[in-house]
Amino acid sequence: MLENISFANPGFFWLLLLLPLALLWYFFKRKEQNASLTISSVKGFSKDDIIPKLRHLLFIFRLLSLAAIIVAMARPQTEDISTRTKTTKGIDIVMAIDVSSSMLARDLKPNRLSALKEVASDFIVKRPNDRIGLVAYAGEGYTKTPITSDKSIVLRALGEITYGQLNDGTAIGMGLATAVNRLKESKAISKIIILLTDGVNNSGFIEPLTAADLAIEFGIKTYTIGLGTNGNALSPIAYNSDGS
User: Fold this and answer.
1) Are residues 218 and 100 in the same domain?
2) Residues 92 and 52 in one domain
3) For the residues 122-137, what does the mean pLDDT come to?
């Protein structure tokens, strides 16, 4: 069980040498810690009474607490080495996620963006052997997470994606081009972009077809997933304090 544990700061273990020194100090100083009191009878302080002997436990607990602090400072880490011996398909995936204001429409519950994140989270969990990265885009695009096999990082980054982090708009070409940039140098057998959006391109200086041609040039497959339902949908709107 301990063979997969490593330590980020093993140098702190030198502090464990303080424990035997503290034990020696306690051994030689213990008699000085005994207090004397004149009383009429010592019947209640029989040598067979276990309570006075328990006072040493307090020092033992202090040593154990100090040892635990030192181990924590050494930052123990676990590593799953089983994945190194697995045969994988070598797929690198980048999910390009639309975070424009229209993604707050409530035709999906509680809104399109939240529903997208729930489905994306389930997809990520079910791809244990693939590397996944995240790109967020609205009026512009940026890399939220580079491609990685650490699904906990990807899931945490996915949860942090919200509306308002970018200028509003739907720059599909920008989102797709950013995803291509993350995958173009990948050595994976298969490279895939999953573009998730609820609208049409209306901003950005890169046309979607131009970005799609770039993906083809680098051998990247692109899958587009549309979100939302037909018809009207409730959506929050912004307004100034004067009501305009």
Assistant:
1) yes
2) no
3) 94
Does residue 238 belong to any structural domain of this protein?
no
- Residue 10's domain comprises 2-78
How many domains would you assign to the chain? 2
**Do 93 and 212 belong together in one domain?**
yes
**What does the pLDDT look like over 137-166, one tens digit per residue?**
999 999 999 999 999 999 999 999 999 889
Cβ atoms of residues 178 and 135 within 8 Å: yes
Residue 101 and residue 74 share a domain: no
